[in-house]
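Illustration: DUF3224 domain-containing protein.
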Amino acid sequence: MKYMTLVGLLMSGLSGQPLHAQDYKSQIGNTRFFGESAARPATAADANVLHAVTSLTQQGGNYKNSCGEKVVPRIMDLHLDGALTHVSAVFTGSHGVCFGSAGYRVTLVDGSDRVIGGTVASGIGVLQTQHGGTYDLSFSGTASSYSVWRWNTGEHSYRHVTDVQLQ
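Result:
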């Protein structure tokens, strides 16, 4: 299986120092974000990953989101280094107002089919900073709103750190 490495050449100049909102603002401004259009449709081989996403229910061969709408989950494979050599970002859409103007719920599932984070968002980007050897993430929300998530090794999950407005 191919992994989409989203970090590219962002590795230069990492200091390991705590970052402030202004530092995250700069990083987010230089990060490429990927939405559901960059993800592939889920297949039967993804059954375990989809089963881990508690906001999805399966009825026959169809899936429904937490609002009961029929959806086609999409998956983006991520490689985030450290303890997370394989992560699936599962995009679950909405045809109505279920996820607001962001339009999607993005759930992160590790290689052992455990949910390790998730939020309502329109896209995901990998930041240049790392915690526990694993890259920090940012989720794009509505308009110019972004959330920053940091890996917590002890809890084996991503935790929300702060929200950043670019304008």
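Reading the tokens back as a structure: The CA atoms of residues 54 and 66 lie 8 Å apart.
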